[in-house]
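Quick entry between incubations.
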Amino acid sequence: MSNAQTRTPNILFPEGLGTPATVFAEPEFFRDLNLDQIVAAITAGRESYDLKPLFYAPLTNLDQIAFRHEVMRDLENETTFSSLKAFSDRMQAMRRQLTAEKDYRYQYQKERAVLGAAHDYCEGVSTLRRELDATVPRSRGLLATRDYLAQVAESASFKALAQQARAVLDELAKVRYCVLINDANVTVRNYEDEIDYSAEVGETFDIFKQGAVKNYRVEFQEPIEISHVEAKILDFVAKLNPAPFAALDGFYAKYPTFTDQAILDFDRGIQFYLGYAEYMAGFKKAGLSFCYPQVSDVSKEIVSRNSFDLALASQLIASNTTPVCNDFELHGEERIMVITGPNQGGKTTFARAFGQLHYLASLGYPVAGTEAKLFLVDQFFTHFDAEEDIKSMQGKLKDDLHRMHGILEKATSKSLVVMNEIFASTSLEDATFLGKKILTKFGELGVLGVCVTFIDDLASLNEKTVSMMATIVPENPSQRTFRIARKSASGLSYAMALAEKYRLTYQHLKERIAR
Amino acid sequence: MKTHLLYRGRDFDWDGPLPSHHEALIQDLNLETLFGAMAGDDEYLHEAARQVMLKSFSDDIETIQYRQAILQDVLQNTAAVQELFDLAVDANERKRRQWFGVLGKYPMGILAGAVDVLQTLMDVVGKLRIFAREKGRNFRSEGFVTLFKMIETELPEEYFERIKTCLRELRFSDGILVSAELGDAAQSSQHTLRRIGKVKQGLLKRVFSSDGPPSHTFRVSDDDGSAKVISVLRDRGINPVANALAQSAEHIGSFFSMLSAELGFYLGTAALHSKLTKQGVTLCFPTPAPADSGRQTCTNLVDISLAITAGKAVTGNDLQADGKNLFFITGANQGGKSTFLRAVGLAQTMMQCGMFVTADAFSAALCRNVFTHFTREEDVTMKSGKFDEELRRMTAIIDGLTPDSMILFNESFASTNEREGSEIASQIVCALLETKVKIFFVTHLYELANAFYGEGLDNAVFLRAERQTDGRRTFKLLPGQPLETSFGSDLYKEIFAGAA
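Done. Structure below.
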């Protein structure tokens, strides 16, 4: 029933800039940056929409990013968010019933499923239309959708569909019947105002129903399909109540299909935003922040405040801890952060977070942290040490160099590289020599990057590199953090150091007890 | 139907967690000795004693007095309370034997099981009503009076009969009538059990005849699975009734298990009372004081665990220390320091759960928690060193610390050198003193005790285990400045006397 004069809205891309080609394969760097886990979490429960390809296509234009930011901002309005959520639920219910209709064997069940689907569709469309009218979205995407919904909802065919579905449902709701079971004899007839026996018994035993007791109700599996005995009962109920069942037959014959493709497309597209909004909510509840990044395609002044690795943070929150947030910035000529420091200090986590921030920004999403200025990256590259590689040291080094060379071939000045423990398989001398060469080349190219390394010399290579050092919080070695300052020796006696560790010094206790 | 013999108007939380530090408390205060004396070999009574003693720290003065009054009733009517207890245990046993029916998978089976259990439990309820009528008047405490009155008012004769009739009718001799509506896949839904032949007021039941409502009857059988389908329909209708009956059975069952557990605690306490009285140990009901009162006085306070083990009266101590919150106990080895520490902790614990205490007189401010930090034999399973282990226990105490707690330290932080141990202990004590915590500290760390002595604090008391000039101990603690030696040489002499 779409009107030829109505422009079909698109919730994912602004008009006029085209849409990127659909990519079905997960990009290579996804796993290294834990983006695979992040995308799985965002799309969890939405598998039927097949959203993953949307995540494999980063945006290439600042207006596309602005377009998605607008939609995300609209979703911050709780009313708008829940309107869209309710709409999706309705559409899910509709699809579920249309699928069930194909599986059902008994005619009345098929008919009832289509009736239910049509009703959910009509309710979904007209409710969303009404609510978007009331909340007044600001995004181009939702404004166009609202106008389209209005057009559809005002059409005569849609109105007729909604009205008829409602009428048949009302008729069927009035049907009430009784089944008398006496050993093997079963009698079916209409309900005759017999009193509710369970209420009567409940009342008698009411005084024994105090406090929290176990629920002894048995959960019945809701039948996908009725059995032949139930079908027999249903046929007889239909004979007892001919009018409502005739109306049901009529509706089924009249509406073999009733959906509008643009509305179905919108339902899928909006999941891209709803999924991320729900994903962010989990972190916000744990006290972490998200912000709209200021994305530039010219300036490489990079700022991030209180950002974190989303994949790690999910795990920590699940075990009731929160990650430590980080700040970093790149100014002037600075392009590459070189991270050194002890193991388990969260170096790799930091490197991943840097990649994640830029990637999620390029999808048009808000990013972790309280403030972010990021660059619109054209290509992402990662080089992580492949642990399971059983090749000889030499073979591995050769491999590493090949991979590096490949990256240097493809990378442009707008690319981003994350390197984790490069050349760990060779001697310190070799690793230092090669590391300097490679970093110098990346520096000349001007790529943005993070390099995690055990080679302290790389940290002070040239004006393009910034040295950062991971340190462990002495009181809580399991807590990962980053400090640029070096840890100074404590100079405490062993016993006092232990007291420090258990946070039992006077200062610690004052803080702990004050809580 | 509620028992409420441990709290006025509410249940004791038997299923809730024990305080996090309960294992240390049991070990350090020798609570097992106490539980053993209360319960003998009876595991049930043992558990009742353990639960109530360890979970009563946050109760108020009114609750303590409420329990003290009930305990007095129990001491005066021990035989009758035992009879009541046996009644409750019998009900628990019957319920246990028949409960399997209620655990069935189908509402029809659950209902039949629940009707069985209820019919046999109503039997015991009948006996309970007779007990309340005949023996109730001998009880004076608010708790028992309320319980017996509740039985009278909540289960009057006619209601008792109505329940019995209802249980009979729920065997469904005339068949089962279920009403239904159409669900969203045209399946039956909203199944409701209906009373056959009984209609809402104002509507006459139509005669079932040729001009009656049209109906359709068919037969089902097991052969084609149709009987199974119909039983599901029936079960859907019965579901809420089965639930209501099973919940009622559970409720009456839990009434009796609550009753037996609560009485178990009091009967255990009464057994302990009788045992100690026979040994000639003086007992009294303590006077609890508000948490902020700073009250801490006692006369002839005895370590009850020592009295039970010794089987006779033992030396007690006096303490008049209202308003004090820091107690340093120093002095001779084997001089009664640990015994005194335990006596203080045990009396506090017993007072707070409503028990008597082993003293001529005892009054103390309520504590929200009692923590113990006692030196331990090195644990071979422990990966870390002893000092590390001590600090770990200390940090756990800090995690669970609440205002108005009492902490008993026994030779803590002595597993490193004296200077470091004193320094760390002193930082901990200083930090704790700035909160509302009462500290008893038995220590050999002279540097620690003397440093606090030198401060001349108003709120501190320094006690010393006495040693007579010939080296003999009196097991009496008296006020006194910490001394630099702990008379280890005396012990050495005693143990190695005549050895060489």
